[in-house]
Design goal:
The chain is an alpha/beta fold. Helix content is about 55%, strand content about 10%. Strand 6, helix 11 and strand 7 form a beta-alpha-beta unit. The radius of gyration is 22 Å and the shape is globular.
Length: about 350
C-alpha cells in the first residue's frame, strides 16, 4: 500500500473527484491539521475543489440529550440512500472530544447500519481544543465531501448552545430533535435554540410513547407561536417520527426539502450562504489573530512580562494591553501567513 504521507495534492484532489474513500479521509485529515505547512496545502486544496462544492443539502441536526440523534441519523441516512438514492455524509461537531473522547464510539455503534453503506461517509469531529477549531475543520470537511459527490451532508452537534450556533452558521436547514417527557414537555428548551430551528421533530413516536409524542408536538407548535409575534415570519413546523419504525421520517425530510426550496424560490439560499461566508471570513480572522497571540514567541514573552509587572502594580492593564498589541503589530510581518497569496 502506498505511503499516505507521500501522496501529493494532485493525487488527493483526483481521489476526491473519483470518490476514493481513503483519499477523501486523507483530505479531511489535512484540513483538520493546525500545522502551518498543512494549512497552506489545505488552502490550496479548498481553492481547487471550490467549483465542485455548493450543491448539497446542508442540514444541521441537534437535540436534547436522549433525543436519539445518532439513531435518527442512522435511520434517516439509510432511508435517503436506499429509497431516495442520495449519497450521505455525516460530520459530528463535539468540542469536548479533546478532553473526554466525546461519544463517537457510541455514535458509530448507533450508526452501524449507515456506516456499512457504500454511499455513506461518517466522520467524527477532530480532537480540537476549542469550538472554533472544530467548526473550521467541520466546514472545510463539508466542502471536501460535497466535491466528492455527497449530495446530503448532515452535521450533528452535541447540543451545548455554542456548537448549535456554530453549526447553524454553516448549514441551510437546522433540524432540532426533541423527545416527549413526563411533566413539562418544554422544560429545558431555550428560546434561542427554538429561533435557530427550521424544522422540529419529536422523536421516539412509537409504541406507548406515540401519544405523548403527539401531545408534545402540539405543545411545541403552540410554543413556536410565542417565539415571534410576527405572523409573516416563517415558523418551524413540528412533526413526530420514529427511528425504529420509520414512521414520519419521510415527512421530516419533506419539510427539510421544502425549506430548502423556499430559500431558493425567494432568492435567500445564495444570500444566506453569502452571509455565512462573511461571518466565516471574520471568524477565520479572529481565530488567526488569537492563535498568534497565543503562540508567537515575542507576544508570549511580552505577555509574561506585562503580567509580572501587573502583579507588582508597576503597570496598568491599559498600558499592558498597549504593550502586547504593539509587540503583536511588530510580529505580524514575520509570520508565515502575512504574505500568503492563498485564501484563509
Amino acid at each position: 500500500m502506498k505511503d499516505m504521507r507521500r501522496i501529493g495534492l494532485d493525487e488527493i484532489i483526483n481521489g476526491i473527484e473519483t470518490g476514493n474513500r481513503g483519499l477523501i479521509a486523507r483530505a479531511i485529515t489535512l484540513v483538520e491539521s493546525t500545522k502551518p505547512a498543512h494549512r497552506e496545502q489545505a488552502h490550496e486544496l479548498l481553492r481547487r475543489i471550490a467549483p465542485r462544492t455548493g450543491d448539497a443539502f446542508r442540514v444541521g441536526i441537534s437535540g436534547v440529550p436522549g433525543a436519539g440523534k445518532s439513531t435518527f441519523i442512522n435511520a434517516m441516512g439509510t432511508r435517503l440512500i436506499d429509497q431516495h438514492h442520495h449519497k450521505v455524509a455525516v460530520l459530528a461537531v463535539d468540542p469536548s472530544s479533546s478532553r473526554t473522547g466525546g461519544s463517537i464510539l457510541g455514535d458509530r455503534t448507533r450508526m452501524g447500519e449507515l456506516t456499512q453503506r457504500e454511499a455513506a461517509f461518517v466522520r467524527p469531529s477532530p480532537s480540537a481544543g476549542h469550538l472554533g477549531g472544530v467548526a473550521r475543520a467541520t466546514r472545510e470537511s463539508m466542502l471536501i465531501l460535497e466535491a466528492a459527490g455527497y449530495d446530503v451532508v448532515l452535521v450533528e452537534t452535541v447540543g451545548v448552545g455554542q456548537s448549535e450556533v456554530a453549526v447553524s452558521g454553516m448549514v441551510d436547514t437546522f433540524l432540532m430533535l426533541q423527545v416527549a417527557r413526563t411533566g413539562d414537555q418544554l422544560q429545558g428548551i431555550k428560546r434561542g435554540i427554538l429561533e435557530l430551528a427550521d424544522v422540529i421533530a419529536i422523536t421516539k413516536a412509537d409504541g406507548d410513547n406515540e401519544q405523548a409524542a403527539r401531545m408534545a408536538a402540539r405543545e411545541l407548535s403552540i410554543a413556536m407561536k410565542l417565539v415571534t409575534s410576527d405572523n409573516e415570519k416563517r415558523r418551524a413546523p413540528v412533526l413526530t417520527c420514529s427511528s425504529y419504525t420509520g414512521a414520519g421520517l419521510d415527512d421530516v425530510w419533506t419539510k427539510v426539502t421544502e425549506h430548502r426550496a423556499e430559500l431558493e424560490n425567494r432568492g435567500q439560499l445564495a444570500s444566506r450562504r453569502l452571509d455565512q461566508q462573511r461571518d466565516w471570513l471574520w471568524n477565520m480572522v479572529r481565530d488567526e489573530l488569537m492563535e498568534t497571540l497565543r503562540t508567537a514567541p515575542a507576544v508570549k514573552a511580552a505577555a509574561a512580562r506585562v503580567e509580572a509587572e501587573l502583579a507588582q502594580e508597576s503597570l496598568s492593564a491599559l498600558e499592558g494591553a498597549q504593550e502586547i498589541l504593539k509587540t503583536f503589530a511588530q510580529t505580524v510581518g514575520t509570520l508565515p501567513w502575512a504574505d500568503s497569496t492563498h485564501p484563509a
